[in-house]
Amino acid sequence: MASAEAARLPATVAGARARKRRALALLVVAIVAWLVPVHAYAAPHVAQRGRPAPAPAPAPERPSRGWSNPKALELAKEGIEAKKNGDLALCIQKDQASLVLEDHPYVRLHISSCLAGQGRFKDGLIAARDALAAGIRNDDPDLKRAALTRVQELLPKLAKLKLAIPNKTQGLKITLTPSVGAGTSIRPSQLKGPISVDPGEYTIEAVREDKGDRYYFRDKITLDEGEEREVEILPKKDHLPDEVEECLRNAKAYKERLKCIEESTTHPNVHVGIDVSAYTDSTAVHVLTPAINASVVSPTGGWNVGGSYLLDMVTAASPDLVSTASRSFHEERHAASLNGGYKFSFAQVGLNGNVSSEPDYLSRTLGGSVSTELNDKLITPRLGYNYSWDRIGYRNTPFDQFSRALTTHAIEAGVTFVMSPTTLLVTGISMSFERGENSKLYRFIPMFPADIASRIPAGATIALVNEERLSFRPREFVPQQRDRVAVGARVNHRFSSGTLRVEERLYTDNWGIKASTTDGRYLHDLGESLRVWPHLRLHAQSGASFYQLAYTGVVDGQGTPVEIPRYRTTDREASPMVAVTAGGGARIALTSEKAPTQYAIVVGGDVMYNRYFESLFILSRTAVWGTIGFDAEF
């Protein structure tokens, strides 16, 4: 009996040792999985990305290195040859192709060596970990031993990065970008421990927006093999008050520096601007517009209020007036607006209103908007509505004696996407529904006999039109309903020294007009005090379905009209046309960025050229617009 027990003892000990080694290997796999989590700055997996892991196969009676896919075996052999020849990139390419066809653990073990040879220790460690897990699952001692050795070789080579983050993490976006390759977003919830990364150079960026204020941090670091480094994330505004700068200089610890930023002054930001704009064109229309605007924003209170006032002084003697023997006119338009908003914890709401008044037109608008922030402020949907009610009359005639009404319901919906710390995408759709008088009451339409209308050329002179037209001229009349729809998108991308903004808008309405408008500008920083921007805009549209170059009419023997088109207009903006606008502007800062009060001069100008393909009197219009303004922020 004793001898039998003694005989079984070596086998029992051997079994215990085997179980101990297996448990140790499993522990190593668990440790590697904990140290190198896939979600924390994980580079793309080396094979079968996005495909579910194969279900564990039952352990065979003895280790198997067999292949079920001949093409996968051929690719694996080519990977081995590539490594022998020192071509690590080709080795990775062949092994990845092999793994797509068949997830073989020995190929994972091989690709880990090629990845490590390129300095991609983390990817190599993940591949070796998967091979070790397969060796344990299949009870393959050779694979377990080789994979465990590889894991133990690569673990000490990884660098450890610890990020100290602010107390206020709501809306905080952190991006870690290697010197080669795309960056990865890291959420504050993922920073419970250090991040394992490959040695090398990295750029760390952090952005946080809080009630209208933008806080930004950027730093470059270089990590050596096995190095452990802590970086303090300290997002702050571009322009800090002197007392905050002084606080930062005197702070001794990270928490003290955070306190300087997060508990800075609660005074609201005030902006005041005045400007004067001027417009003139080749149709003898001239406009001078002085304006003033002001706004107050409370970063901590979450509220804002603003307003503006402008005066348009217009002088016009266009062909539309001359063709009807009307005198040139001088008139003034007054326009005032007021807006405000408040940011709740779940959404931001805004209200706006404006009034515009001129001798024969009174317009009033009330509206509101609501927006919210989703997915850590990466997605911001917005919905807005405006209602306008206008009164249209004759010059020098009181509205109570004569007026027509026009009402407009305008709906706007859009979504803003933060694509990266430097790229913003804004999409939107707008719809408006107009009911009432859309006609210009001062505009009279020439009528032609049917045999003459077809021979009237585009750009026909006033003299030619008066010579060929019929004796009567009915007033302009267009449909009393107009439904408009426009969709658009704008991309803002920040480069190291400038911002590119490109916008596209597609438009259609139930009058039959279809249009495309493309607008772009590049704002380039020439030092701290000067920003300049070129501007280009292209617009093309079809004409309204009822628009005609020359309308036909029928009269009886006494010259009395008996038949005229129901809808008629000579409005060139309803005709087929293209327009090009080119210009630019500049902002000149008069104070330093750290000054408590910021002063700046803003200048801008555009040259606009419109080409009309089916229009009476003129075929083109050239206009020049310019503005100069003064801004103050305190």
Question: Could you provide a short overview of the structure?
Answer:
With 634 residues, the protein is of the alpha+beta class.
What does this protein look like?
The protein has 634 residues and is of the alpha+beta class. It is 22% helix and 42% strand. The protein has 11 helices and 27 strands. The protein has helices at residues 2-35, 70-84, 88-101, 105-117, 121-138, 141-154, 242-250, 254-262, 319-322, 450-453, 462-468, and strands at 159-164, 173-178, 184-186, 195-197, 200-210, 213-223, 228-232, 269-281, 285-298, 303-316, 329-343, 348-358, 361-371, 379-392, 404-420, 423-436, 447-448, 481-494, 498-509, 514-525, 530-541, 551-552, 554-555, 561-563, 577-589, 598-612, 620-633. The strands form 5 sheets. It has a 16-stranded antiparallel barrel with strand order 8-9-10-11-12-13-14-15-16-18-19-20-21-25-26-27. Strands 3-2-5-6 form a 4-stranded antiparallel sheet, with no helix packed on it. Mean pLDDT is 86; it is low at 1-14 and 38-64.
Number of helical regions: 11
Biggest β-sheet: strands ordered side by side in the sheet: 8-9-10-11-12-13-14-15-16-18-19-20-21-25-26-27
The total count of strands amounts to 27
Provide the low-confidence segments as ranges. 1-14, 38-64
Strand-residue fraction? Answer: 35-45%
How much helical structure, as a percent, in the residues? 10-25%
List keywords for this structure.
alpha+beta; 4-stranded antiparallel sheet; 27 strands; about 20% helix; elongated
